[in-house]
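Marked as duplicate of an earlier ticket. Keeping the data here for the record.
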Amino acid sequence: MTGPLDLVVLGLGYSASAFVTAGAGRFSSVVATVRSAASAARARAAGAEVLALDDPATGTRLLAAIAGANAMLVSVPAEAGGDPLLPWLGCAIAAAPQLGWIGYLSTVGVYGDHGGGWVDERSALNATSQRGLARIAAERGWLDLGVRSGKAVQIFRLAGIYGPGRNQLQSVADGTARRIIKPGQVFSRIHVEDIAGACLASLDKPAPGAVYNVADNEPAPPQDVIAFAANLLGLPVPPEEPFGTAVLSPMARSFYMDQRRVSNARLTTELGYVFRHPTYREGLGALFAEGEGRRDGR
């Protein structure tokens, strides 16, 4: 898609904010929703017109923005049964005359457990958690809308997200980092700048029904990433904790139940995307250079 674009963002969170910032030169206007008026400051900082979903006046303005939009990014937490905004906005989105690109931010969690094997966009969706099943339902809802309306809906399945203010350098520096050891366990990751970059690359090549894994080149054991961050900071590497005896919240423990390695081949071949941070080493190295986690601020 060329020329200045009018963008609507449903759910302006961490990743969507990075997309808006990275694409600032592409968008003539940005209208974004947040859950409440209390969340509005972040949206304004990203250069967007803020529409709080708890404001009764939001509905009219949001429908007008959708009617004039060229592009839409969706980053709303899924709920049981799918995307909570689709029943309300689906008809307006389908009818929007200029809407040529819709990106939905999902998660690689939809794949569930694959025993440490590689998964790509054709792999079975084995999720068993409520979170994973909700995401699968949301993906299907958006893809179905694309088929019914002829809109170019793309799904981006994101690996574990890190970036400014949300990374292992910060957790090591503040003493909350833990090196949980579960033999053979690896996770795939993605720097938020590469999420933005991948979505912008797709914006130039709308592909109805396309699904892209957005994960870097190196699935890695979580303890190795923590050790790398500690070494960058010159701080002690946190001790190892066996997974079997570690005290973890149910949410934290659930992440260790699934194991897979996520292929990004479709993203790099079909969209020609080149990662700014191909592994956690480059990503954490860049964040360290920017002062993340460094107590001296230099």
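See parent ticket for discussion. Residues 130-149 form the longest helix (20 residues).
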